[in-house]
Design goal:
This protein has 417 residues and is an alpha/beta fold. 44% of the residues lie in helices and 13% in strands. Helix 9 links the parallel strand 10 and strand 11.
């Protein structure tokens, strides 16, 4: 890494470290810890910038030359941008994470993606050719080889400490998947429409395929636990989809330094089963997810899908359930009734209110007010998570205005209670 890259990184890291040392960051982290332990005194407002980062911290503005340096530079610039424009309850923690150098081999079949040249979830479109076309194709599947390149991982960590360690805390990131819902893997192997048909015409076939996907995930997790490459995800610097991981309930009381699955948060969802009824969701998705999810300390469930008909199943079968997503298309009052004061009501507003060519703040005010009313009536632990913001039309002040509006309405709601 050239000296010029090191200088750029250290200058940015110094700025971020000063922001991370502000008292408000610890206040925010404490607020999140209280929320995740169901003792929050007020609703929390979070913002997940996602696709809009390409406007707020564009790659074209990066000055470093080294690939890894550019990755760290963008993380630091995003932290600075968040401090300036996005006054949510997301703390700026002054942490840089380095990975474990993990690679996964083939599993016997390959899904061919067709359309967008690069599988970019922010832009473009694609379809795919599912490789599991008949029952006999199941015989092609095998558990992939997983390689942990510890030497590479250590070199990256050493470099991070050398360049950034004076200002930033260097941590290992956990190799967990973003979700252990399994159904995304299912449709890439079998095809979405075909999976819907299989529930009626080939239920045994579908269950055998889901069993392989489940066993594949379990084998991976057991290897990670055995090899000691898991990392705690219990701080405000740890993203657990639809929220942050800050909690004083993890790791377990018997934790002795070796991270186990039961010391961690896990995330699962089944967006691909949005249109599937509760009985089939339970039979073909949830029952395969449970052997994975129950191994963890705390569980967050749901992403963008509406869970209106599935709350009872999740509550019945997941004793470690803590955070439940209430998406844009969910029945907000029903969710409040089901989740009451026992779970985090993780509401995801429709991002179109700030992503459209013209923002709709009046609509945002109506939506926020309604959610505040129904959650207050049932004593819910509310988290507002502005997510899936693929663009803000190069206007970062849209985040600022939405967050300020939410805070104003929260204050008004608390005063009325």
């Amino acid at each position: 890494m050239e000296q010029s890259d090191r200088t750029i990184l250290r200058d940015l890291a110094r700025e971020v470290a000063e922001i991370a040392a502000l008292p408000i960051q610890q206040e925010r982290a404490g607020l999140l810890t209280d929320l995740n332990s169901l003792r929050a005194v007020r609703p929390v407002v979070l913002a997940s910038v996602e696709g809009a980062w390409k406007e707020l911290a564009p790659v074209a503005d990066l000055r470093c030359k080294n690939e890894l340096a550019r990755h760290w530079e963008r993380e630091l610039r995003m932290a600075l941008c968040r401090h300036e424009h996005i006054p949510s309850d997301n703390p700026i923690m002054g942490v840089i994470k380095v990975g474990w150098g993990i690679s996964r081999g083939p599993s016997g079949v390959t899904t061919e993606f067709i359309g967008t040249d690069a599988f970019d979830r922010d832009e473009g479109s694609m379809t795919w050719d599912p490789p599991i076309k008949e029952f006999a194709d199941l015989d092609k599947l095998h558990l992939p080889e997983i390689v942990i390149d510890r030497d590479r991982a250590q070199r990256e960590e050493d470099l991070a400490r050398e360049v950034l360690g004076e200002f930033m805390e260097i941590r290992r990131s956990s190799p967990l998947r973003w979700s252990y819902g399994l159904t995304e893997r299912l449709i890439f192997l079998r095809g979405l429409e075909q999976v819907m048909i299989d529930m009626y015409e080939n239920p045994r076939f579908l269950k055998e395929l889901m069993a392989f996907i489940r066993d594949e995930a379990i084998a991976e997790l057991e290897l990670f636990e055995r090899e000691g490459v898991l990392a705690l995800n219990n701080t405000a610097a740890d993203v657990v989809t639809n929220g942050l991981g800050a909690t004083d309930e993890l790791p377990g009381d018997d934790f002795a330094g070796h991270v186990r699955l039961k010391d961690l948060w896990v995330m699962a969802e089944s967006q691909e089963f949005s249109g599937v009824g509760p009985d089939q969701f339970n039979e073909f998705a949830l029952q395969f997810q449970l052997p994975i999810l129950k191994r963890f300390g705390l569980c967050a469930y749901g992403c963008c899908e509406a869970l209106d008909l599935k709350y009872d199943l999740l509550i019945e079968h997941l004793p470690n359930l803590r955070r439940v997503s209430v998406g844009p298309w969910a029945d907000k009052a029903l969710a409040a009734e089901k989740l009451a004061g026992n779970y985090i009501y993780a509401w995801k507003p429709n991002p179109a209110v700030i992503c459209s060519p013209r923002p709709f703040y009046d609509q945002a005010e109506q939506e926020i007010s309604h959610v505040l009313d129904v959650t207050r009536a049932h004593g819910c632990h509310l988290q507002i998570m502005l997510a899936d913001t693929m663009t803000v039309r190069n206007e970062p002040q849209r985040f600022t205005r939405y967050i300020d509006l939410a805070r104003e309405l929260i204050d008004r709601s608390l005063s009325a209670s």
